[in-house]
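yo

u said u wanted the structure for the complex thing, so here. seqs first:
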Amino acid sequence: MRKIKEFIIEKLIFFCGLASIFFVILIFLFLLKEGLSLLTIVGPFEFLAGKSWYPISEPPQLGILPLILGSLFVTIGAAIISVPIGIACAVYIAEIAPAKIKEVLKAGIELLAAIPSVVLGFIGMMTLVPWVKNLFDIPTGLTAFSGSIMLAFMAMPTIVSIAEDALYSVPKSYKEGALALGATHWQTIYRVILPAASSGIVAAVMLGIGRVIGETMAVMMITGNAAAIPKSILQPVRTLTATIAAEMGETVVGSEHYFALFAIGIVLFVISFAINVTSDFFLHKDQRV
Amino acid sequence: MVKIDIQRLNIWFGAAQALKNITMQVKKNEILCAIGPSNSGKTSFLRMLNRLNDLTLSFRMSGSVLLDGRDITKIDIELIRKKIGMVFAMPSPLPLSVFDNVAYGVRMSGVRNKHSLEEAVETALKQAYLWQEMKDRLHESAFKLSGGQQQRLCIARTLAVQPEVILFDEPCSGLDPISTAKVEEAMLKLKKDYTIILVTNNVKQAARVGDRTAFFLTGELIELDQTEKIFTAPSDRRTDDYIRGRFG
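structre next:
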């Protein structure tokens, strides 16, 4: 009797495990099938490097370069803001903050991660967008710059918590060894602890950037959604994700536009996959040495 | 001549008292060994001297420790740690090359000149009996060295900062007998120029290298005397018991 129970439970868990892989494969196949159909209509180069995105003109122009650049502008901007602040914050929490402040800060970071992106987008639209408009005296505050600031807030919790873990797991002997040689606290942090934690910090940054690239709702609300090639970060842009979210509801299933949106999905998938693989490489680098 | 003068020193970590009313002197150019069972307070004693105990939040102390007559809690903490270097129980090289490990502390204290750095590294490696083995491997990762070489590298790293006192915290606990002999040989040569305090669990090691030996038990200093006297005719019964292996 007990053996049968063991057997059933074991198989049940096995199928649950299998199911998750199975679903991933199904999603991937579906994405490929729909997306690659586009290649019969436009060539890959024309699709990736095409300068105009007019999916409903006649004939449709399906170049996603403006969208790729839109995503790139927003992401790079967000990284420039969030990476230094995030790493500094992690160093403060891991190395400097007294125990009580540390707890408060960690809870604050968790809370920041818990804010739904649509709420952040809404707050950004109401406060940040008018501020950017007045500050630079430009016709609209819905710009790549506003999106970058908003997304920096979203990347920050990921960067801080993973970087802090990496800093925390630096062996205590490194720190004591450096201090015992007469190094100051800052010299120890800068010359020993940060380099020793560098692979974990790179992974933290990559995962934070991954979060920014995949983010949809907030960017859709505050970047202005103009599918034109941006000349500066103070212009409206449209990202890859926002394009899919905004247009999928209006396309005819099986149309060129529909296939193009799936192809954008593949591009996003490839980007996130590359970022995850890179961060994974850095995260496990120490274990391989 | 007295190098370190310790008066009525008490140390607590939270509610637990690690050292109880210690009064003793360390003489210049001697090797003072501290022996005792685990939890006897000998490591807390050592970490008191270069103020590494300060890293523990619950640490409190009373009494005084004077280095050349100056209270160590009133001297700049980085300066104290330069004057009183430390070698840890486990070899703890930094994730850098052999050269950079030795040059590390020297660079920290502001030396940038390449030639002076090279000179400091060579001198320190020679003092630690590592130069012959290392002169062609200076740019390899320190992690590639054997345990004994790593420990002598840590000694060289400490020497390169030109301290006055060197603290050894069970430096041979992870080493084989041959490496241990090399470390001991280095210590005996070093006492010419430095004052050495050695904490060891290996009683025989204390007998081999110590000029004087202190016996600690549960945070108290039981006895401090010439090493021969401690090992042949200790005045306290508990010292004799410990040395003969009757407890601890």
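Residues 152 and 183 of chain B are 7 Å apart (CA to CA). Chain B touches chain A through 24 residues (CB under 8 Å).
cya
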